[in-house]
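Let us practice reading a record.
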Amino acid sequence: MSRRIRAVATVAETDGPLGLAADVADELGVDAVVRVLDGAGGSAVSRAEIDETVDAGTVRVGADVAGELDVDGGSVVLLEPVSTTPAEAVTFAPVPRLSLAGGGPTVRAAVGGRPLSVGDELDVSFLDGSLSVPLRVTETAPPGPVVVADGTTVELLDGPAPTTEQGWIRPVAAEAVGGYGPTIEELDAAVVAPLLEDERFDALGGTNRAGVLVSGPAGVGKSHLLGHAAWRASATVHSVDARTLPPGDADAVADRLREAGAAVSGYDPGIIHLDGLDDFLADAADDPGAARLRGWLRGFVDEPGVVVVAEARDAEDVPESFLRGKLLARTVRVDRPTDDDRGDILATVTRETPVHSSVDVEAIGRRAFGYVAADLLALRSRAVEAAAARSDADRPMITEADLETALAATGPRKLVGSRREVSSTGFDDIGGLETAKRELRRAVEWPIRYPELFDRLGIDPVGGVLLYGPPGTGKTMLARAVASTTDANFVPVNGPELMNKYVGESERAVRTVFERARASAPTVVFFDEVDGLGSPRSMDGDGSAPERVVSQLLTEMDGLGGADDVTVIGATNRPDRLDDALLRPGRFDRLVEVPIPDETARAEIFRVHTREREVATTDHAALAERTGGYTGSDIAAVVREAGLLALEDHVGSAADGDAGDPAIMPRHFEHALELVTPSVSAEERNYYESLSDQLGY
């Protein structure tokens, strides 16, 4: 590693080369090109010159470098000499979506002798200074730092320029962190205190310094919170992407780890960040590279002024051998944000965004059930898009409607299904079935809308509702309607789809559904054709796949409806094929019949299905009287067939040159009733009528 020295920064008001104090230049041994490091993995390369007006031990940093690294006057930075080479080619692109064809000579003149690397940005003036455009370096040959020489090919692409992925953690100030108060306190104890208060622990005859494992789902903000810990400790951070370590090459792993150690050792305090540890160890826990990593941890964990922090999505995916002793002795779990956390996070990420004063941003965040920090950033971006598309003002503001649009268009990451997949069907779009609607409102809608009333009255919400009845009576439509009337996430699952011929996979699929539902609560999990998943277990307990799946389903459903905020709705045509244990209290607490509609309900169903269609005067009661035994889907088929007959007549009339506006006439219904017959036979109707007695309801 090149020689590095420390210097105190002062910040110039304009862009320009670094101004080195004479003693700093002597210690570096150069006065041409220098890399400035901010101590958190960020760096910028700049031309340098000796400046006699700069105090000893000081470097004057141009405004461009200071802005890139977020360096303030008085900050301590690291400096190291850099060798540049003349470039064969350098490619630029405008940061915004813009085309600047023919602007290569202007860019060449603007660059001058500035050292360049991929990701560097500079402002270039075009059209005699009337247009200033930020450009980003997208490629250099050879890799930078390079300088543009007479023989360099300068290429200017159309914008927008691709973003550059930074492989480091930057310090995150307090005002850039929302929520997660208890987690921040844990990181203070595990990371910050060992770096700032080690002497106090030594005085007590010990140390609290040890490796730390930070675990949590993707997108919750693990790296962001670690950056905040680095800011609180004023620590240098060096990140190592463990996913890129070659598990079978112990020497290569050792070289990367030595480089990481050298980057922070001697610059108290320091943090070594091992990202993606679980991915590295997934298939390599016993490989030489993993053994070398374990040995390095064992030897490095007591390095003064340094804390090793590893990241993983799930602590259970890290072998116990890495959690013993002081290797990764402390685990800090970063869970999905609470309601208040989400409100704080959304308020934080929109702090610099023009939001109308009437908008309660925190309330929107609390309603974003199941969202993690990354989802809330996506929510903000979608709201900005909605505001830009809606408003033609020069400075549009985000309104509550924009945020509502963003909520409808986004959702929790990695949620199987979601309310985004739910149609806009409401209870008013379903004719009849008043008893079933009432039960679903009580079991699903009320606990979500009025949780404080349930707490005040000491009522435990229902954990599961089973909808049963003949095919086509509207069970699936009811489940989707109750989800669309609440702010809950909706997870539709087809029971047979979870069955897998490989041992353990079906149970894993059931477990995963409920894990994701709990993580994104409040959630409605809808099992369609649940009889295909919960068939009765045999008396001898043969351990077959269906039996194991039922046992897993019983385990997951036990205790639902309380703190988990998860409600299960099952739908089946054959409730008698379900295991009896699923119908006991605590599982499917409510069995709700969805019967073949009576005459009054059939009239209402006809009214619902014809209200959005061009229909001549229709006697819904007369149609209902003639459709005894028809299900809701049968009536929908009658209306659809009548519509097709009306379309057929209209097309024929148009061919004869005598076509008016198409409309469904009474004669079309008459003909449709002749073509569409009840889908449920008399024997099946008798079976379903006897089910309530069999089930004890």
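A brief commentary: Residues 163-167, 416-422 have pLDDT under 50 and may be disordered.
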